[in-house]
Fold:
Amino acid sequence: MRFIPCVLLLLASLVSAGPIRAQTPTPGAAAETAGGSGKTTRLTAVRSWASPTGTRVVFEFSDMVSHVAPDSGASRTVLVTVPEQVSRAADVPEVLKVGDGLVDSVVTVIGEGGARFHVWFRDSTRFKVMSLPAAEDHAFRLAVDVAKPGAALAETKRVESIAAQKKREKIRVVAVDPGHGGEDNGARAPRSVGLLEKNVCLAIARAVVEELNKTPGVRGVLTRTSDYFVPLRERYRLAEKMKADIFVSIHANSTRRRNSGSGTEVYFLSLRGAGDQADEDLADIENAADLVGGVPEQAENQLVNILYDVKRTSALAQSQLLAETVLDEVASDRRLESRGVKQAGFVVLKSVEFPSVLVETAFINNTKEARLLKSKEFQNTIARQIADGVREYFKRARIGISDQSAPAPIGG
Structure:
């Protein structure tokens, strides 16, 4: 479907709106629901995020709302209706032009009967509609996930090509994981600095990959290449599919108290934890058959757990060594104090296929360290130190690296 002019889209929305009478917001204020009574929920944002496999359209509200829409399907458009009193914040557009080749535009219609959201696609494609509950750093949202046709297969082939190149050229693959992304901003710097964790993580991760790719026989590959969301388990599963040798996740630390906390620390996985974390570890063990490989689900659980524990014990020992070598290099920067090597139950570190660490580069809520994180010079410096730590790990672990000339970078 070619792009339809915004006016025509809006007219089409109004025609289909039925009893909802569209309203125009007063200057500098939200468009309040007319003639209604009771609580009015505000539509605070309409956003879109494009990833290699699709686009997510997000509608953010000041409070939880109910919605009417198909859970999933295939079409050239999808209509999401909120049959409640809704007002639109002044900075939320009636028509959001997306134009990313998959989603053309999003039309918002607010009236007496509630709100209607028309998401228009370029061509007929598959979609999924869901609600995202409010969390500590996120308001309640409705999301429309639109799948890019053929993208899943293309991504599979891309990852498989990395594994094939590794086998063919005997290179070492390092999966570098920029934390957060898309709807997940991560922590925020003080307003005077103006920095989101997801952006600095991506900048440092890109620089780490660039540094690693200077070493013949070593290749860095990003788990996300731009600003989009990747589920935690999908991050290490991508690394598993590309047959990565190690996994390094990049983050920025933060505390609730402004300007408190300082320094850098490196984590590897802890198998002991309280409450729900212990439950997650137990679930991982119960589902270990997929990770071990080749063992049918109906096989004796004791055998599966023994095989899994052997791999996990080995991976944890190597993860500790990797954490120590990376911290040794990063701690050489006197601008940051070393907070040591620590253990925690981070989901992203739970693969047993390779050593995994999570680097908390600096405290983004600390104004001084946030300014460092925003500095390109510091980003490049800490990226070089992390890459040096990876190279040193290969030496300490006696993992050979091919001395052939470095091939062209792979996997973005």
In short: The chain has nine helices and 14 strands. The chain has a mean pLDDT of 82.
